[in-house]
Task: inverse folding
């Protein structure tokens, strides 16, 4: 896997934003990556500006990996959010593999797809293969009472990903 990842490191990745330090997107201090593009249309989504496919920021996977590793001191991990991260599964797979190859950082993926939708698609399943935690399922505004409470499970419904 690692050799293949090295060979495709220039893979483009459409992103909404990145944040080198956050304590509000999972346990500890984390580097956060919001992908651009989501077609799921969850009612009440609170980040609709991430839905269009046209990205305000296009990076290479290797470029983002370098940014994360350059600032890794004091980081507990990386959180991938959206938009829908798994609408770009190759970029996510490459990124996660490179982070695991080069560091001990943990990886959380927040996705609006269900566990079944992920497992039914080879590329999506491969994208989360190196993740330590996958929070899966459509955002449900009625169940969203505060950030963090719905996130401490491997897969579960109603977790916000934006
Ligand atoms: S909550 Fe997440 S999966 Fe749902 S529409 Fe918004 S960005 Fe897409």
Result:
């Amino acid at each position: 896997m690692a050799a293949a990842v090295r060979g495709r490191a220039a893979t483009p990745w459409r992103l909404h934003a990145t944040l080198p330090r956050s304590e509000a997107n999972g346990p500890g201090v984390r580097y956060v990556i919001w992908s651009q593009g989501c077609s799921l249309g969850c009612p009440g989504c609170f980040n609709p500006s991430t839905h269009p496919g046209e990205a305000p920021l296009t990076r290479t996977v290797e470029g983002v990996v370098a940014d994360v590793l350059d600032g890794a001191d004091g980081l507990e991990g990386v959180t991938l959010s959206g938009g829908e991260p798994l609408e770009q599964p190759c970029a996510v797979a490459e990124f996660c593999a490179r982070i695991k190859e080069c560091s001990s950082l943990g990886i959380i993926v927040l996705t609006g797809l269900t566990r079944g939708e992920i497992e039914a698609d080879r590329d999506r399943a491969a994208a989360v293969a190196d993740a330590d935690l996958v929070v899966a399922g459509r955002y449900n505004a009625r169940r969203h009472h505060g950030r963090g409470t719905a996130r401490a499970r491997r897969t579960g419904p109603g977790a916000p990903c934006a």
Notes: The pocket of iron/sulfur cluster is lined by residues 38, 40-42, 45, 47, 50, 82-84, 112, 138-139, 160-162 (CB under 6 Å). The first helix runs from residue 2 to 7. Residues 1-7, 145-162 have pLDDT under 50 and may be disordered.
